[in-house]
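REQUEST ID: PR-0412
SUBMITTED BY: lab tech R.K.
PRIORITY: routine
TASK: structure prediction, single protein chain
INPUT:
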Amino acid sequence: MSGEEKTQNAPLLAVVILLSMLCAAGGYLLYTGWVPPQTAAESEPVILPETEPTAPLTTAAVTAASVQTTVTTAAPDPHAPYLVYLADELIPVSGRADMSAALPADGQTGIAGAFYADLRDTGADDMVVIRLDYTGESCAALPVLLWYGMENGEVQLLDTFEVKPQWSAYCIRRDGKSLYLSGEFLGESGEADTWRFTEIELAFRPDPDLTMLNMVQGSLTDCPVPLYPESAELLLEMQLDTALPVAPMKERRYILRDYTQDFS
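STATUS: complete
OUTPUT:
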């Protein structure tokens, strides 16, 4: 090799020798297990504090729903025995008074009304039934008052009152333990000079006794003052239908109205 070639290959030879030395040193280090020192400390693991689970906050108050079941028992009807007695005993025998239209006197007979009240101060109601009876063509069907009470668990008739005067029209009123009957009668001709008026006051006594306390009669010119107070309750009225001729008597028609509505 010439001197010029040796000069040109010298750097390359030096690099080869250096690389060979490095490879030899690396192999020695691998063989001996040498590990280069760390230049920076490994970071410690970050440990977060443990937290306990908490319920979500809410502004709504939580309350336990209390469900109550209320059982109501209907109280027995204190008038039930009377209603049964009306339906089974009185109405089948006497019938029901017809209030559907203006009728002749014999068409309005039967049970016309009933009311209930403690008339003997026993703490329980009695029953008073208004029955209408036909007494002839000369007047309207007239009222009969039937007073019933409970005795030994059964409905018993306590007393009765029958109207005797002839009436073409009348009203029955009640105030407490008193009944008031106001009646008027038109004669055969229907002329004013034949009119007659009657006022009757009855009282329920605890004996029991349905007693007449007073009766006043008069003509049109001296018509008696009504005995009933303004607070008296109207129970029933019978009116002569003056839209039709009032004479002769057998052609007359009567209008009946019941305001008790206490029986079915």
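NOTES: The longest helix spans residues 3-32.
REVIEWED BY: pending
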